[in-house]
Amino acid sequence: MRAARAAPGAHAWWFSSSEAIGHLADLVAVPRGAPAPDWAGACAIATHPRIAERARAAGFGHVAACLPTREALVACIESLPSELPAGAPRTEPPLPSPPRDP
Questions:
Q1: How far apart, in whole angstroms, are the C-alpha atoms of residue 52 and residue 13?
Q2: pLDDT digits (tens, 9 = 90+) for 67-92
Q3: CA distances (Å), 7 to each of 24, 38, 42, 63, 73, in order?
Q4: Which secondary-structure segment (H or E) carries 71?
């Protein structure tokens, strides 16, 4: 967690629960007077629009959404920009519909 606190933008954060975002905030809590992590340069990947909303509210600078499948996650990660500039737009691509059984 020290690395996350020191450079949150160096990681892509995958969230499948909005509670996990709250737990992350608790884990990287800093002592009083110390600077809080700057999530503006960090990327969050969310598996649901409400989770994406919570990530934006937490200050993540880039928010991507994908279905909670391995294939969708890999495709989402591969589509991320290699570097996200500070203040990157907070986007949430629409989640595709899951495939229907024939």
A1: 11
A2: 999 999 999 988 887 655 444 444 44
A3: 14, 8, 9, 17, 23
A4: helix 70-79
Q: What is the mean pLDDT of residues 53-72?
A: 92
- Helix then strand then coil, in percent of the chain rounded to 5, is 40, 10, 50
CA 76/CA 71 separation, integer angstroms:
9
**Count of all residues that appear for the chain in the document:** 102
> 0.85 exceeded by the pTM?
no
Between CA 34 and CA 64 the distance in angstroms is 29
**C-alpha to C-alpha distance for 88 and 22, rounded to whole angstroms:** 22
Task: Please check whether residue 9 is in contact with residue 27, taking contact to mean a CB–CB distance below 8 angstroms.
Answer: no
CA distance readout (Å), 42 to 7, 33, 89, 95: 9, 22, 11, 20
